[in-house]
Model the fold of this input.
Amino acid sequence: MKNTMTKLFAVLTLMAFTVLACQQEQKAPETEKTATSDPHSFSRPSEARGTHLDLELYVHFDRKELEGVARWTVEAAADATEIVFDTRQMHIDRVTVGEAENPVDFTLGEEDPLLGQVLRVPLPEYRKPSDKINIYYRTLPEAAALGWMEPEMTAGKKLPFLFTQGQAILTRTWIPCQDSPGLRITYTAQVTVPGGMMAVMSAENPQEKSGDGVYSFRMEQPIPPYLIALAVGDIAFKSVGPRTGVYAEPVLLDKAAWEFADMENMLTTAEGLYGPYDWGRYDLIVLPPGFPFGGMENPRLTFATPTILAGDRSLVSLVAHELAHSWSGNLVTNATWNDFWLNEGFTVYFERRIMEALYGLDYTNMLELLEYRELLDEIEYLGPESPDTRLKLDLAGRDPDEGMTDIAYQKGAAFLKMLEQTAGRERFDAFLKAWFDKHKFTSVTTEDFLAFLRENLLDKYQLEANVDEWVYQPGLPGNCPVPESDRFSKVEAQARAAMEKLPDTSGWTSHEWVHFVRNLPKEISPQRLQELDRAFQLSNTGNSELLAAWLETAIRRGYLAEVQPQLESFLTSMGRRRFLMPLYTALVDTGELDLARSIFAKAKDSYHAVSANSVEKLLDEAGQQ
Done:
């Protein structure tokens, strides 16, 4: 049934796009939300753009290579002579047109270290509107989006594993595409993998392994290329609700299913806030430790780090965050990476609303206060007058990853919280629901949002808000909401008293533990840290958030020698950038550059390129000072 439905979908899709192309061949493509110039893409969508992708791939673990063909359905203006794609770290074997596979002469531009190579494909005069552009290619082993994990880097230790990470501009390293968040496509895929392995994608997915290693996928809702995702390995599935389930290696499956048992409740809660979930299923896959982020919001299938398997469901706010992206980020997407806050600021705000509905205001206040402190630290690090502390960024000529800071996440969420306080929650909820509904399956700019905000909230209710200061000026405005938490105030008192006595930790959540560790006095002695460590086994905790906070505190408070084995084990066993950067930075700041380099040399091959590049840059810059 799966293969039959996939074939039927492919036929219907081809027919639909053929009719559409015939209707639009004599005019420029309908790209209402794609006219915005994207400094991180070579593509020229106003002339010609891919609207649908049929992908055929073979996964070769032995040579760390994907091999296949990307078949693009194209819309083009009447006078268009070529279509332009983004590529990087791949070999283009040949390009053909149509079912007849007529070869065409393509050209590749000079390699740009950030953007890769422009691929120019001529559009022959004989091409019919329904003809696909077929790009045959092979990825290189060093392709930045691809995380190739050896068996020993997995939980089961038996089979290798592959995952992709396309955000921000890395999809072009495994699929030749027009790699801009402002361009949305539908896709199908057929992926062939070695026997005994399962493939899953950001699409409709199998729930059992295929006997022949061939898997078929479809994503019928239009998404930007950075949200196309693939994972291959020894994967199994377990349902946790009517529309929700968990994929993981078999040895982790039961643990993951227990940890994420609230996913269905989260989904229902989110729908109650901002409207229907438009993606069918919401599943999650637990990846090997080399995954560079806590989670990635790939539609229908969140990619998640195993570091959130705390055993007590204490880190499930990450799931709420990735689920919230199903509206902010996936349903309505930033048109360029200069508008990244539209993805993450909205999502952090939405995540907190989900957590408040499920776990109460006290719990959510702790989360918000932790993140507010992180925002203040980020502004201090960047400098309060730095243009990178604005919501609307200018990242031309820079890696868009440089804009993925707490500014987009936490300042963006604080801006929305300020608007909520100005308008009242009832009005603001109705406004956000209307925003998602009106702009679903489109990509938008900051200016699109501000125009909608003024028309549908501020002017409508005659409200005043310093919007331009929040969006276009650096630092934090004076009316930034400052979260408070009675529970954290008590924890801070315990942290101050820890100089003389052990804290009373009865009833503490993991958030209170993290806050306690981060607020230990700077003058606390290594001997006192050792007493705390022995009393509460902090160096051996299974909670990754707490362990990371404890190790950073230990480094900065002179307790490094005692925790060095745990530090090295932690840094060489996972690749989550959120933990790596503070720990390596702490080593650099305390004069332990040689130790940092030694640990990185052991670990870097297990890190995804996103994490490895960030750490390497940090250490290189430290060595030049």
Q: What stands out?
A: Residues 1-35 have pLDDT under 50 and may be disordered. The chain has four domains: 2-234, 236-318, 327-484, 502-624. Residues 327-484 form a domain with the Neutral Protease; domain 2 fold (CATH 1.10.390.10). The longest strand covers residues 48-60.
